Amino acid sequence: MVEIPAPKPTDLLSIGEVVERTGVAASALHFYERKGLIHPERTTGGTRLYPRHVERRIAIIQVAKRLGIPLSEVAEQFATLPSDRMPSLRDWARLNERWRARLRARQLELERLQEEMTQCIGCGCVSLNACLVMNPGDALGADGAGARRLMPIEDEAGAPRSISEPLPGGRRRSA
Asked: Is 145 in contact with 125 (CB distance < 8 Å)?
């Protein structure tokens, strides 16, 4: 009987094999490569070969996308992982620890938004004095645009930012 060795995380896979194993289109893999999220090796003929452990990165990218986490944030976290070898359990644990606080903060924001929406729907806007979104006589309008009583919009570092304050690159947040 011929014994077939178990696959190793460092085994190299063709792009077709990665597409088949992950369900991610080849064009998406090329995009992730351009963004620095994954790092294939190249043969002398230019063919991409991916270490098997890249499947873990792709899985994390897919989950992050479903959760609305920007790829730039994923790239920032992945930048702390080694690109020339398979990340160790210690590497993944450090990544998890750094991400834990950020994800918990996002979870709390979503819970607060859910509570505020429930209150708004619950009051039916019958009483403008009790509504967290509206205010009688537009008294809060002088403070600026947007829902002034809702939690403030925060920048990447978690500092409050005015809804009308420019975003990085000079763009303005849409209200």
From this structure: no
